[in-house]
Write the structure tokens for this entry.
Amino acid sequence: MSEIKAQIIGLGHSVPEGILTNDDLSQIVDTSDEWIYTRTGIRQRRIADANTSTSDLATDAAQKALKDAGIRADQLDMIILGTASPDMVFPASACVVQDNIGAKNAAAFDISAACSGFLYGLSIARGFITSGMATYVLVIGAEVLSKILNFEDRSTCVLFGDGAGAAVLTPSENGKGVLSSFIRSDGAGARSLNMPAGGTRRPTSPETLEKRLHYIHMAGNDVFKYAVRAMGEATRVALEETGTKASDVDLLIPHQANIRIIEATAKRVKIPMDKVFVNLDQYGNTSAASIPIALNEARQQGRIQSGDLVVLVAFGGGYSWGSVAIRW
Ligand SMILES: CC(C)(COP(=O)(O)OP(=O)(O)OC[C@H]1O[C@@H](n2cnc3c(N)ncnc32)[C@H](O)[C@@H]1OP(=O)(O)O)[C@@H](O)C(=O)NCCC(=O)NCCS
């Protein structure tokens, strides 16, 4: 009997219908399709309507993942939701999802690890499952970042989009599932990527509103350089911990922030771009949702087969970063 692993048995994702193209953005701020595409690889992003929140997209993704897994919501022991754009500061958006889907036997909580939230969630799910403390865990990454973007700041508003992705995990003894998980943080990065106001450091006031402090603020260049280093390190750790080589990886699914970050990471770890999944041209950076959306699209497109070695790698605010290697 082989060791117990946490296996993904269902996936789902949800994106809003509204599309905002680079040309649309050039009507709002001083930018162009050419600038955005050459600097980031993004062509368009999905934007939620005024009535749609993070938990709405998360609920849709969760229901699709449960259906794909063939289990009922009341079988879930835990719902972990990674997000930087929750419905409210509290309660957790995971609790809203729990109520929406009727997961009455589940503990539900959010993780604040920005773009790394889904991989942090997978790591926690793995711990609970392999220790025997949970049988069915739902991990979600969901964001409506468009509502915390300053559409007067061209250096941030062109980068991000909305969406959600979800995975159901359960114990397996067939050798399939999570082989390694690695998560790290560097709190010094809080200075380069943050939403300054609306918490207890700078509570909402007329002044914070006027200074546009309730939006994402970012020093793009600092984030860029750190991301390439950290995602390279996290991929290398996944290979070391699984005793595999770059050539053994069937598909690398990196956080979809910027094509130049992805290409630089792939080059560092010597994985050719034809083994790297990219969909950021369609969705932009959906933060915690980017990896589960990409994972589900990769599977739907037949890019992942049974037995494949799939490596997920993320980087985001915190700073936070990590990797998860999966035998599919
Ligand atoms: C944001 C990012 C695309 C900027 O690309 P860059 O090549 O570093 O560009 P710079 O920041 O050096 O800016 C170059 C110029 O373009 C301008 N610029 C910035 N955004 C622009 C836009 N949307 N359209 C046109 N010009 C823009 C800048 O004002 C600057 O002009 P200046 O030289 O006159 O001051 C890049 O730094 C990046 O992707 N960083 C990582 C961001 C990220 O992914 N964060 C999330 C991680 S999870």
